[in-house]
Amino acid sequence: MFSVGLDQYLILSALLFCIGLFGVLTQRNVIKIIMCLEIMLNAVNISLIAFSRYVTPVTLTGQIFAIFVMVVAAAEVAVGIAIIFAIYRERESVDIENFDILKW
User: Fold this and answer.
1) Cystine design at 43: which of 3, 16, 19, 88 (Cβ 3.0–4.6 Å)?
2) Which residues are registered as beta bridge partners of 29?
């Protein structure tokens, strides 16, 4: 039987994080950028739970931190989508180049 080790989880986490980072740096659509940020946060959750499982299997610290990251991510999406809707009503576009409202 093949057992999945810590290094496989960390490789998966690093791969997901790099995919998300690439998406954040290359996308122009704000909704796609938020989705890529969520991929990055899920990669962090995988690594937190993997470290918790293999380093300290008795305590649930990694799982608790992962739940905290999920709560923060849900709040971030709610606020981000509200801001996107407000800007879309004014500019009729979700292109990142049109988000210059906060500039002087």
Assistant:
1) 16
2) 95
Reading the block at residue 85, the tokens are 């809707």
73's CB contacts (< 8 A; 6+ apart) are 37, 38, 41
**Backbone φ and ψ of 103, nearest 5°:** -75, 150
As a whole number of angstroms, the distance between CA 78 and CA 25 comes to 22
Query: In this predicted model, what pLDDT tens digit does every residue of 18-62 receive, in sequence order?
Result: 999 999 999 888 889 999 999 999 999 999 999 999 988 888 888
Q: 103: phi > 0 → left, psi -120 to 50 → alpha, else beta; which?
A: beta
67 confidence band (pLDDT: 50, 70, 90): very high
Whether 11 maps to a domain, the answer reads no
- Which residues form the domain of 91? 28-98
Q: Is the separation of the CB atoms in 47 and 63 below 8 Å?
A: no
Cα gap 35→23, rounded to integer Å: 9
